[in-house]
Design brief:
Helices cover 17% and strands 34% of the residues. Strand 20 and strand 21 form a beta hairpin. It has 4 helices and 21 strands. The protein is of the alpha+beta class and 336 residues long. The strands form 5 sheets. Strands 13, 14, 15, 16 and 17 form a 5-stranded antiparallel sheet that branches. Strands 1-4-3-2 form a 4-stranded antiparallel sheet, with no helix packed on it. A 4-stranded antiparallel sheet has the order 5-6-7-8.
Length: 336
C-alpha cells in the first residue's frame, strides 16, 4: 500500500476552479437580468408584474380591451376595474383588432403582437418590413409641417388601415398591408402564410383596403412617368388561391355583408358585386351568362313565368306595353 501526502492547494491551482465559478456566477446573473423578449411588460391591477402562471385566468368575454397611453389595457366589464396592462419598452401601441378571441396590436416600431386576453399571455410577435416607415410617414409631402399630435393621429389612422383581421370559419388570420408589401399571418401561431409585392410601377393602397370574413381586398395604383395609368384590386385568402382584377386608378371597394363587396370604378363602368366566399362576381339575372353564373344576386332571380304580367288582363291604355318596352331596353343595357 502506497501512501501519498495530502495535496496542498497553491494559488496557481486555485485559479482554474475560481475562474469556472466566476463564469458560472456571471452566467446566472446574466440569465436573471435577461431582458424580456421584445420589451414585453405585463402588469396586474397593482402595477406588479403579472404572468399567466401566477395570475388567475378570466373569461375574455368579460373584458373590455382598450389602447390607452402607450399600451393595451383590459378592464372588467362588470366592475370597470383594470384587470391588466400590456406595455413594450420603447414602443407605443397604436391600434387593436380582434382575431377570434385574441387581441392583435400594431406598435409604432413596426411590430405586430397577439395577446390572449383571458390570461394576458403574449402569444407571438411578428415584425413587418417597412411598416414603421409607413406609420411615421417621414419624407412625404407636408410631413415636416405636422405637429406631434398630427403625427400621432396619422400613425393611428395608418395602423388601422394596415391591419385587417379575417374571421374565417373559426380559424382567423390577419393581413398587414403597406404600400410596398402585404403579408398574411395565421393567428394560431403567427406563422407567415404569404407575402406579396405589387408589380413594378404600382403601389398598394392600405387606406382603400377592406376585408370580409373570407378575404382581404387590396386596391393598387400604377403610374408611368408620374401619371396614373391603371389600377387593380387583388384579393387574398388563406384557404385557397387569391384573384386579381383590372380597374381604374381610383376604384373603391365597399363591404356589403360578411362575404360580398361592391366595387365602383367610375361613372362609365357599371357597379359590380363580388362574392369573396365564392371568389366570383355576381351575374345579373338579365345577362347572357345568367344560366351559367357561379354567383346569382343574393335576392335571387324572379321566374318570368310567375310574373303577374303573364296573366294580367289587356291594358287598353297601352301603359303595360310602354312598361315592357322600357324593361326590354333596360335588359339590353344591363351589366354583364
Amino acid at each position: 500500500m502506497s501512501w501519498k501526502p495530502p495535496r496542498v492547494l497553491t494559488p496557481r491551482s486555485i485559479l482554474p476552479a475560481l475562474a469556472v465559478m466566476l463564469v458560472l456566477a456571471a452566467g446566472a446573473a446574466a440569465h436573471a437580468n435577461k431582458p424580456v423578449p421584445f420589451g414585453d411588460r405585463v402588469a396586474g391591477p397593482g402595477d406588479a408584474e403579472a404572468t399567466p402562471v401566477n395570475s388567475q385566468s378570466v373569461d375574455s368575454a368579460g373584458l373590455d380591451l382598450k389602447v390607452v397611453g402607450p399600451g393595451l389595457e383590459a378592464y372588467h366589464k362588470q366592475t370597470g376595474e383594470r384587470a391588466w396592462t400590456y406595455r413594450r419598452e420603447g414602443a407605443e401601441a397604436l391600434y387593436l383588432a380582434m382575431a377570434g378571441d385574441n387581441a392583435i396590436v400594431v406598435w409604432d416600431d413596426g411590430l405586430i403582437t397577439s395577446v390572449r386576453p383571458g390570461d394576458h399571455a403574449v402569444r407571438w410577435h411578428r415584425a413587418v418590413p417597412g411598416l414603421a416607415d409607413y406609420l411615421r410617414a417621414d419624407g412625404e409631402p407636408g410631413a415636416d409641417k405636422r405637429t406631434d399630435a398630427e403625427r400621432k393621429e396619422t400613425a393611428k389612422q395608418r395602423a388601422a388601415a394596415a391591419l385587417h383581421t379575417v374571421q374565417r370559419d373559426g380559424s382567423p388570420w390577419l393581413a398587414v398591408v403597406t404600400p410596398n408589401l402585404t403579408m398574411g399571418l395565421r393567428d394560431a401561431d403567427g406563422d407567415l402564410r404569404y407575402n406579396d409585392r405589387p408589380s413594378n410601377g404600382c403601389l398598394y393602397d392600405p387606406l382603400r383596403t377592406v376585408h370580409t370574413d373570407y378575404a382581404v381586398l387590396i386596391p393598387r395604383t400604377c403610374t408611368s412617368g408620374g401619371v396614373p395609368v391603371s389600377g387593380g384590386i387583388t384579393g387574398y385568402r388563406l384557404d385557397s388561391n387569391g384573384w386579381s382584377m383590372i380597374t381604374g386608378p381610383a376604384a373603391t371597394v365597399k363591404v356589403l355583408d360578411a362575404g360580398r363587396v361592391e366595387i365602383t370604378d367610375g361613372p362609365i363602368v357599371p357597379v359590380k358585386v363580388f362574392d369573396t366566399k365564392a371568389a366570383a362576381p355576381e351575374t345579373a339575372c338579365t345577362g347572357l351568362d345568367a344560366p351559367f353564373a357561379a354567383v346569382r344576386p343574393k335576392e335571387g332571380c324572379t321566374d318570368p313565368s310567375a310574373s303577374p304580367t303573364a296573366t294580367a288582363p289587356a291594358d287598353p291604355t297601352g301603359a303595360a306595353a310602354a312598361s315592357a318596352t322600357a324593361s326590354a331596353a333596360d335588359g339590353a343595357t344591363a351589366p354583364q
